[in-house]
TrEMBL record:
Pfam families: HGTP_anticodon, tRNA-synt_His. This is Histidine--tRNA ligase. Keywords: Aminoacyl-tRNA synthetase, ATP-binding, Cytoplasm, Ligase, Nucleotide-binding, Protein biosynthesis. It catalyses: tRNA(His) + L-histidine + ATP = L-histidyl-tRNA(His) + AMP + diphosphate + H(+). It is an enzyme of class 6 (ligase). GO terms for cellular component: cytoplasm. Its EC number is 6.1.1.21. L-histidine binds at residues 81-83, 112, 126, 130, 259, 263-264. The gene is hisS. Homodimer. It is found in: Cytoplasm. GO terms for molecular function: ATP binding; histidine-tRNA ligase activity. Belongs to the class-II aminoacyl-tRNA synthetase family.
Amino acid sequence: MEIKAPRGTRDILGEEVALWQHLEEVVRRNAHLFGYEEIRTPVFEHTELFTRGVGEETDIVQKEMYTFTDKGGRSITLRPEGTAPAVRAYLEHGFFVRNPRVRWYYLGPMFRYERPQAGRMRQFHQFGFEALGFQDPACDAEIVLLAWTIYRELGLSGLSLELNSIGCPLCKPHYVQRLREHLENHKDLLCEDCKRRLVENPLRVLDCKKEACQAVFREASFPNIQDFLCAECRRHEERLFLLLQHLGIPFVVNPRLVRGLDYYTRTVFEVKVHTLGAQDAIGGGGRYDGLARALGGPEVPGVGFAAGMERIVLLLERSGFTRKDAFRVYLAPLDEEGEKDLLILSQALHEVGIPFSLDFASKNLRYHLKRAQKMGVRFVVIAGEEERKNSGFSLKDLVSGEQILLSQEELLGRLRKERETC
Ligand code: HAM
């Protein structure tokens, strides 16, 4: 039987690769401009990092982790997200002593055993930013600004930014208690999963997408977390809102936004695109001041954000995005000598940075012209007997149909000019 890629994974091939590379370039450039440095953590970690970091009661830990015992008997998990690993690295390398404030970014595959559908994969990719050691709400604003800047630069439209505060260890428990009471009184209306969550972690109930549960949340009497925030949390939130207003970033406050990971304190946010259907979140993040402590370290405030790259690539694809540097020449040899001449020419093209494709499969001009057309290449450089007699090459423009004989020097000059205007 033919072996296929496992369910929920896929190959990224052909023209789609250009979209990924463009996205990665935009992320890296903006990270650099905002002063974020790259970190590369392992793809697998000790399972405990996620059970303690992300939270025992979350869907990620309960249902979605790729966990196995390695040959040494250790419980290992393929990382489902990048925040807990970043904080683990921060603690492990003693940053809190020698350099407590860091700004980091990462790009890479994450793994969650979810039911695959459009925009939801088992191996998916995220880019993310984590600012550790920063307490000030200005840093929350910086993270949102960075996310927003990247989405804008990618030309994504129809974005909505939802924000909420889920309080701190001082005020959150009052809300959770009130929420539990309210849900207890409406228990019959909740789905089976939510009845269980109600006991273990009532905040998780708010993540439920089932219509019956959503109807309960919409009732006017449903407790609003915004009414329970302590003075410090309220001050933090108000400052963030003010900064975002100054930055001209539109947002809505969604008091039911709690996000699916337990490490958040105060700020949580999500960016959605309504055209994406059910999997409409293209990024999310928030503050996690208690995470370092939960992982056995000291108190280290942190705020961050991560975005799903598959979903963004889907949007780029739909917008008909093409790379600016798509300029490329096709090199068509008509005999063995022509092959040699084109190999030598390819060195000169390489030197001036003009991408080329050399095809050795045939010596037939019609074959080459068809191939070039199929590849979407406009200029074909031909090398055969005729060209050799004139110590040069033919350049064919597949758009105008024009074909001219040029010396190597003239050819390079012409191609450089064409590239600039393309
Ligand atoms: P998250 O909301 O779980 O947050 O994931 C962030 C983004 O990853 C989502 O908004 C979505 O775009 C994408 N994503 C998640 N699961 C999948 C999937 N199965 N297939 C495709 N895309 C997916 C976090 O992971 C946090 N670590 C974010 C964060 C960073 N918070 C603070 N710092």
